[in-house]
Amino acid sequence: MDREIEGKKATRTKAHSVIIDNRERVTVSGVEDVDSFNEAEVILVTEAGYITISGQDLHINRLNLDEGQLIVEGYIMGMDYSDHEQLRNKGGGFLSRIFR
């Protein structure tokens, strides 16, 4: 399935889902990697782009990259999708943000 997003054509390749339970638990499928994480923010890499989960007292309860599943628990305040190019232009990966 192709979609038009802000003048760009987005191609859907793999199944991907996000389930949020009572702002206390997020289950994400289609995860390829975890770019960075701390108690306030978890940044995931998916084939559809990056997902940033923000909140308080966040911790990764389960990570299985073979199945592409991640479970984050804590107080969920927000979630944001971004394209791979947008995050790279924002300042690069985890190590580049540490050494600024």
Short key terms for the protein model shown above:
single chain, 100 residues, mainly beta, Immunoglobulin-like, six-stranded antiparallel beta sheet, two-stranded antiparallel ribbon, 2 helices, disordered C terminus
Short account of what is shown:
The protein is mainly beta and 100 residues long.
Q: Rounded to an integer, what's the Rg over CA atoms?
A: 14 Å
N- and C-termini, Cα separation? 39 Å
Q: Helical amount among residues, as a percent range?
A: 10-25%
Q: What is the CATH C-level name? A: Mainly Beta
Oligomer: single chain
Under the CATH scheme, the architecture is Sandwich
The coarse silhouette is globular
| Count of DSSP strands | 8
Helical stretch count? 2
- What is the residue-mean pLDDT, rounded to a whole number? 81
Q: Please give the order of strands in the largest beta sheet.
A: 3-4-8-7-6-5
> How many domain regions?
1
**Biggest pleated sheet:** 6 strands, antiparallel
The low-confidence runs, each spanning 5 or more residues with pLDDT under 50, are: 95-100
One letter per element, helices H and strands E, the order comes to: EEEEEEEEHH
What class do helices, strands and sheet pairing give? mainly beta
CATH topology: Immunoglobulin-like
As a percent range, the share of strand residues is over 45%
